[in-house]
Design brief:
alpha/beta, TIM Barrel, two-stranded antiparallel ribbon
């Protein structure tokens, strides 16, 4: 992949971490932590950076903070890898506004999940995309996240959307491998359309079957691990895949499995980054950072995993 390019590779391949948003409080970025986090992730050899996604807590952030984050990330990355910006919103106009901000800041693409709250039908979703694309100044990657949005981009809808100028890929985060294989089958005649796996535990399996890469939250912590796993799967190096897959599952269990609620993934990820000295672990409301007991567990786990210190 060419570096220092403002053109999005087609298809987009590799590991594109969904970056956490380092915060000091409800509406203030941890700027020093953000700078350290970006350099930590890029040092792992990733192929892109995705901001304002689920891992980035985008729905909980103010428009002001979203805009500041876009500006700071694009300014620091300086074209070293493509920057993808989440524009998911219940308001059509706000999605367009954030996309224009991303374009002005120097991002390469935007990412969109279905607008949540109102239960749109598949025909309505497709029409929504048809209306949205002429307004967007950047290529669009769809984001299938039914557990949070309560809406699915059905495979036939994705196929139809792929024919709309400017829609260049999909991030698949349902965890449903039957759905994933249907997408693979429908999209096999579209070699430039990128299919990215959102569940890092399924990264290797997806790439072995034909996915172009993954959007892996754990790549905030140990980016090189996921890059190496992607490369091993891409080249069908099965012994290496087996070894690295075990490490991915260890991280998943140790870091995301602490705590009682579904938010444990985010809390664990931010807590681990804080223990590593990379960024603050403040979470946007309605969530809160881990207390001392859970933090001590996370610290012990990252020491046991050998990721206590930055790469």
């Amino acid at each position: 992949m060419e570096s220092n390019s403002n053109v999005l590779p087609r298809p987009l391949r590799g590991i594109i971490p969904p970056m956490v948003t380092p915060l000091l409080d409800r509406d203030t970025l941890d700027v020093a932590g953000l700078e350290r986090l970006i350099e930590h992730i890029l040092a792992g050899g990733v192929h892109g950076l995705f901001i304002l996604g689920t891992t980035g807590e985008a729905p909980s952030l103010s428009q002001h903070l979203r805009c500041e984050l876009i500006e700071r990330v694009c300014e620091q990355v300086k074209g070293r890898v493509p920057v993808l910006v989440g524009i998911t919103d219940t308001c059509f106009v706000e999605s367009v506004n954030i996309a224009c901000k991303a374009k002005d800041a120097g991002a390469q693409a935007v990412v969109l999940a279905p607008p949540y709250y109102f239960p749109a039908g598949q025909g309505e979703l497709l029409e929504y995309l048809e209306h949205l694309m002429p307004e967007l100044p950047l290529p669009l990657v769809l984001y299938n996240m039914p557990s949070y949005t309560k809406l699915v981009f059905e495979p036939e809808t994705v196929k139809a959307a792929a024919a709309i100028t400017g829609i260049v890929g999909i991030k698949e985060s349902s965890g449903d491998m039957v759905y994933f294989r249907k997408l693979l089958s429908l999209l096999k005649k579209l070699p430039d359309f990128s299919l990215l796996m959102g569940h890092e535990e399924l990264l290797a399996e997806a790439v072995l079957e034909g996915a172009h890469g993954g959007v892996c939250g754990g790549a905030n912590l140990v980016p090189r691990l996921y890059v190496d796993l992607y490369k091993a799967a891409f080249s069908k190096d099965f012994p290496t895949v087996e070894t690295l897959q075990k490490k991915v599952m260890q991280i998943s269990k140790a870091i995301y499995g602490v705590g009682r609620y579904e938010s444990s993934y985010l809390k664990g990820l931010k807590c681990a980054l804080s223990c590593m000295g990379i960024c603050n672990d403040f979470l946007a409301e309605p969530f809160h950072r881990f207390r001392r007991t859970e933090r001590n567990v996370i610290r012990r786990h990252i020491e046991e995993l050998g990721i206590m210190h930055k790469e």
